[in-house]
Amino acid sequence: MRKDSRLSRVLHILVHMAAIDRPVTSEEMAGMISTNPVVVRRTMALLRKAGYVTSARGHHGGWQLAQPLADITLLDIHHALGEGSVFTIGLTDEHSHCVIEQAVNAALKDVMDEAEALMLQRFGQITLDQLGTDRISHYLHKS
Question: What CATH topology corresponds to 6-88+127-142?
Answer without folding.
Answer: Arc Repressor Mutant, subunit A (1.10.10)
